[in-house]
Amino acid sequence: MARGVNKVILIGNVGGDPEVRYLPNGNAVANVTLATSDSWKDKQTGQMQERTEWHRVVFFGRIAEVVGEYARKGSKLYIEGRLQTREWEKDGVKRYTTEVVVDMGGQMQLLDSRQGGGGEQGMGQSRPQRPAPQAQPAAQPQQQAPQQSAPDYDSFDDDIPF
Q1: Are 33 and 14 in contact (CB under 8 A)?
Q2: Residue 84 forms beta bridges with which residues?
Q3: Parallel, antiparallel, or unpaired for β 28-41 and 8-14?
Q4: pLDDT tens digits, residue range 5-55?
Q5: Which positions ≥6 away from 103 have C-beta within 8 Å?
Q6: pLDDT tens-digit series, residues 103-139
Q7: Gap between the Cα atoms of 10 and 108, Å rounded
Q8: Are strands 48-60 and 8-14 parallel, antiparallel or unpaired?
């Protein structure tokens, strides 16, 4: 008997800063909304059309802590998870929500730089330093090349834990 496959892969932008809370057992839970967009050319008018879908994503465990620390509104994320529908009752009315759950069996990757996610809290000083070296060689490549020493890749400071 085939058991079925429940797998979701999304690449999108975070709609707001993650909401992180901790369960009584100490495990972290982070909630985010993720926007994905489709675009196409309308056959009748010839104009480009766009539709945005919003997805509720729930992260558990260490992935939730990483999302809470590094993802911000506007961050681009790659996630792999599974669909799960929850049911609850409020004021005598049954309510449902379907979420993408990313736990130990899922994956998450930040697709933009540490500073590129829209949230710059605590990182404002390092932001102007990185784009400047990339812009200078394009403007004066012949003058910069003899004066520059080889880049020191071992001194690259990256404290992202994955």
Answers
A1: yes
A2: 99
A3: antiparallel
A4: 999 999 999 999 999 999 999 999 999 999 999 998 989 998 999 999 999
A5: 59, 60, 61, 63, 81
A6: 988 999 999 865 544 443 333 333 333 333 333 334 4
A7: 10
A8: unpaired
DSSP 81-127: EEEEEEEEEETTEEEEEEEEEESTT-EEEE-S-SSTTS--TTTTTTT
Select from 13, 31, 162, 9 the least CA-distant residue to 80.
9
| Predicted structure pTM score | 0.65
Q: Which phi and psi angles does 114 have, rounded to 5°? A: -55, -40
Nearest to 72 by CA among 137, 130, 39, 116: 116
Alpha-carbon 94 to chain mean position? 31
Question: CA 107, CA 37: separation in Å to the nearest integer?
Answer: 21
